[in-house]
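Entry 14. Structure prediction run on the chain below.
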Amino acid sequence: MRCTLSRLKPWLTQLPQIESRLWLVPILILALALRLFRLGTNSLWFDEAFSWIVARRPAWAILTQRIAPILPPLYHFLLHFWIRLGENAFALRSFSALCGLLTIPVMYTLGRELFTPAIGLAVALLTAVLPFQVYFAQEARPYALVVLLSALTLWAFVRSWRGTAYGPWVGFGLLTALSLYAHYFTVFSLVAFHGFALLAWPRDRRCWRGLLLSDLVAMVLVGPHLPSAWAQTYQVATHFWLSPPSPLQPLKTLDYLLFSHTTPLFLVPVALFFTLSIFAIVTWEATRACDKTRWWLLLLLALVLTPILVALLLSWLIAPVYLDRSFSLVTPAYVLFLGWGLAQLARRSPLPLLYGGLAVVVVISLGNHYFKPDPAKPPFRKVGVVLRGDWQEGDVLLHLHDSSYLPILYYAPELESYLLNNDPDAWLPPYTWQWAGQRVSSLDEVVAGKLRLWLVVMPGRINDRQEELLAQIKARYEEKKEWGWPAVDPVELRLYNLSGADANSPMDMSLACRVCR
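Output returned:
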């Protein structure tokens, strides 16, 4: 009997962890359903079309940044191989959905190892249902990959810090390098990791050797990419469209990292109230935690706040680099912090009410995300349907902004289309058009020998010179038909009859587009 009990004892001690892992299965099923539901329904917008165009280039060109998008190469490099499964919207976005799904067991493991199995499940559930995680797991952009790598990097740091061997530190350095190849803001997270190690110096000096080893591994792997990274950073700092953030922007960012663009406008103040109230109370509870737990909570807070505050200062002092979605790498630490807060519900505090209100906003926001198209993303699929349906021989398509040019390349690649690259310059640098599409020529060259002109206009992105150009087109050619799709960033499609135009009144060449060479 004693022998039997002695054999059962190790299994019985692991029973709580086994039960928690079983509960992880329905959470993963829920997460998969949320990420696949209506995955390919909405149109691809400019950024997603850009991801598609880059991913279709040769793998080596992507990795060596010869096509020079202003992003690190890892996401597009992986997407290059993924799209061999298909290039429709569902297939393009499914890579992000996979990254979002893989993040959940990593987050569960982190919550279990840092705190308890119950908190691990709470963290996994939050990761599964939070609208920010769902939103970017359904978009063909690198942010779901960034979240996954950030969670893995944090997990590697925790295992390395608690271990005694140097092998885990090598793994941490490798994951750090991969994270840097996914998003440059990983540098700010490294500041938090090193700050945590510096504060822990009197307690545990042995980890510094391992941390320095991981730094060396990361530098060796990232070193060849540093010239490209510097060039891209300079381009963002000098030519990007960002403006300096307000001092209160970090408060809105904390809400954005939970809900993204999904919350209905009338609920935004409510979501902001719940978010900031929970964050403040959980931070206060963290100061009262036991010593061991408090150190890990301090690291999580540092990982959340350091990138946000450093980017804020850089935006004020040097050049604007503050963009809410760029802080996706802080969400693993953020969700872990809030997941630990769920364990404090038994205490006398307003936390149960606040978390309940947050859950209601999450459900409403997810419904809004699924069934109400994002007003900031024009329905380019519908534009493509009209173009392909009414296209005739002798037609030509013209865009005034690359925001419409790239998505229509995706939805109607067979059409002859051009981009008017006049002021303000298209967001992509001129050499990009050597591989992204046809070269741009003057308007008179575009319409030569053509019968009809299709014009795609983004009214919110038109400057004074383009307004004058539009007036000249309207005066010169007969407009046959016009379509419009209202949105935050609306799009209009106009069809002009070129026959009978006055050939003796050429377009003002100061307004014509430049050839990209």
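Confidence is low (pLDDT under 50) at residues 1-9, 11-15, 423-428, 508-517.
Filed with the rest of this week's runs.
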